[in-house]
Model the fold of this input.
Amino acid sequence: MSLRTAVAHRNLLYLLSLRELRTRYRKSVLGWAWSLLNPITQMLIFTVIFLYVFRATPPTGDPSGLKNFPLYFVSGVLPFNFFAITVGTAIGSVQGGAGLIKKVRFPHEHLVFSVVIAQFVTLLIELLVLTVAMFIAGNLLLPWIPVLMFVLLMLALFTTGIALALSAANVFYHDVNYLWTILSQLLFYTTPVIYSPATISLEPLRVLALYGPTGSFITAVHNVVYDLRMPSTIRLAQLVVLGFGTFFAGAWVFNRLSPRFAEEM
Amino acid sequence: MANVIEVDHVTKTFKVHSEKVNSLKAAIVARGRNRYEEFYALRDVSFEVREGEMFGVIGHNGSGKSTLLKCMAGILQPNAGEVRVHQRMSALLELGAGFHPELSGRDNVFLNAAILGMPRREIAKRFDEIVEFSGLQAFIGSPVKTYSSGMYVRLAFAVAINVDPNLLIIDEILAVGDVTFQQRCLEKFVEFRNEGRTIILVTHAMNTVKEMCDRAVWLTHGVITGEGDPSDLVDEYTETMLGGNVRADDGSIRRGSGEIQITSVELFVNGDTEPVKRFRTGDDVTVRLHYRAQQPVSRPVFGITIEQLGGATVTTPTTRDAGLLPDAIEGDGTIEIALRKVPMLPGTYDLHTSITDFNLSHVYDHLQMALRFDVMTGKPYEMGGVVTLHPSWHLA
Done:
C-alpha cells in the first residue's frame, strides 16, 4: 500500500500499538514488571558466569571510568532484546493477523509497525530504570539522552526493516519463524553484550562484533551510556546507512509480497 | 448515473497444489517440478454498479461469489482485469474481524472502526450512536470475551454500519442475529438506499434479493450466467438449483435434508370435516399440515407461503413469527393454521410449505406447490387487487 493510505490509517496504527501494549500483560499478577524481570534475570546469570566462573575483569568505561559488569551488560542487552523480540513478535503478528488480512482491506504493515512502537515504548521505560541505576553508579546520563535517542531511532528503523522482510517471508515459508529463533541466538553471541570487543583476540570476530549490523548499534549505545562518549562520525554515518537502508529494503520486500498475503494464508 | 464500481474483465485463478509447499526445505526439494493446477475462480467477469443501486450477487456455493467480493474489496488482486472503485467503500465480509477478546467493548469499537478506515475524531463523534444502535450500553466497558455471540455480532454490525460508506459490500450478514436484529439491519439497508448510497449484497436469501435489489448478477463456476432483473434471475436460479430435486406426480417439488417432511396439506372451510380445494372470500379457513419426523428435530420452524398464480406473494406466516417454538418434534403429527375471514380475492393460488431450523438457514423440507386452490367470489367482492381490506365507503 502507498504511503498515503498508511498515513490515512495512522489512527489504526495508534490503536493497534495501544492494543499491543494493553493486552501484553493481561492476566498476570506482576504485569509490566515482567518486562524488567527478564533482563534482570539475564543480568544475574551472566554476571555470575562472567565474574565468578570466568573471573574476568569488567570493561572500563572511557572516559567515564565506570567498571561495572551488570551495568555494561544491561545497557547492551536492552537494545539487543528490543531488536530480537520485536522481529520475533512481528513475524507472529502478521501470521496472527490472518483473520483480519483475509477479511478486511487495511495497510498490513501496520501490524509490524504497531509491534515496533509498542516494543520501543517498553524499551524506553526499561532505559529509564537503567538511567537511574547509572546515576547511582556515578554515570550522569542526562546530557547524553539526545545522542542516545538518535542511536535508538536508527536501531528502530533497522529493526523495522528486518521485521518487515522476515514477517512477509514467513507468510510463505513458516521456517522463517524457526530460523529466527536460531539466528537471534547467533546474533546475541556475536554482538558485544556479554563481552567487550576489545577482549576478542580473533580478528574476524572482533571486526564482526564492532562493525556487524547489531554490533554497530550496541557498540554505539555502549559508547553513549557506559563510556559517556560521542560515537565516532564514521560510526554515526554507518548507523544512518544501516537504519535507512534496511528500512527501505524491508519495506520494498513487504510491499512486493503483501498483496499476496490474503491468498496465501 | 455514475458508476460506483466497475469490474472490468476480472479473472482470478488459484494454484491448487497437489502438496502444499510452505517450508523452505519442501520448496527447495520441489523446485522446478512444483506441480499445481490452475483453478479459475473467476473468468473474465465484467459488470458495473451504478450510484444508488442495490445490487445482488447470487450463485451456488463455490460459484466464485466470495472471490468476486474479495476482489471488489481489494483483499485479493485479480490476475487479469481491473476493479475500479470510485467512492468510499466499506466491505463487510465478516462481522467483528479484528475484535480482541481481552479488550473492552469500547476499545474494540475504536479499534474496529479504525480498521475499517475511520478517523479518530469521527469515531469519537459517532461513538454514542454506535453503542445505542448495538443496544449494549450496559456492557460496553466489559471485555468482549464475556459477550454472547449475539451481542458480539450486534456490536460489530453497529460499528460497520456507522463507518458511513457510500458503497457498502455485504456478505451473508443477514444470516446472523435474532429476528429483531435482522429486522433492524434490513431497515438500516433501506435507509442507506433511500439516502442514495450503493449496496452490493451477496446472499443466499433469495427473497431479500427479489424484494430489495434493483439489479443482480448470477455467477456459475466463475462466469456470469445472467444479469438484470433480480426477480427473473432468482426464479431462473431457483429452477436450476431445483433441477435435481424430486418432482412429484401432483406437480409439487420437494427439496431439503429430509429429517422431517410435510406428508400432506389439507384445507378446511368453516369448521367442516371434509377437506376442500376452494373457498370464498371471507370464509374462515384452516390449513392442516401433516408432518413426519424420522428423528427428533429440535426447534423446527414451520411456514407456509401463499402465492398468487402470477407470482405475487400474498402472505408467509411462520411458527417463529407467531412465537410457537416447540422444543423438539418426533414422529407423525399435524399442525394447523387458522385463518379468519380470509381476505383473498377470487383467483388461483399456490401454497408452499417449509420446515427449517431456528435460524432459517438449514432447510429440512421445502415443498413447492404443495397445494393449489381457488378462491371464489364471496363477500366482499372487488374486481382488482389480491386482497380486500374490508372497506366501508361513506359519502360525507
User: Anything to note?
Assistant: Chain A touches chain B at residues 8-9, 11-12, 14-16, 18-19, 22-23, 26-27, 99-106, 172-175, 259-260, 262-263 (CB under 8 Å). Residues 134 and 164 of chain A are 34 Å apart (CA to CA). The mean pLDDT of chain A is 89. The radius of gyration of chain A is 19 Å.
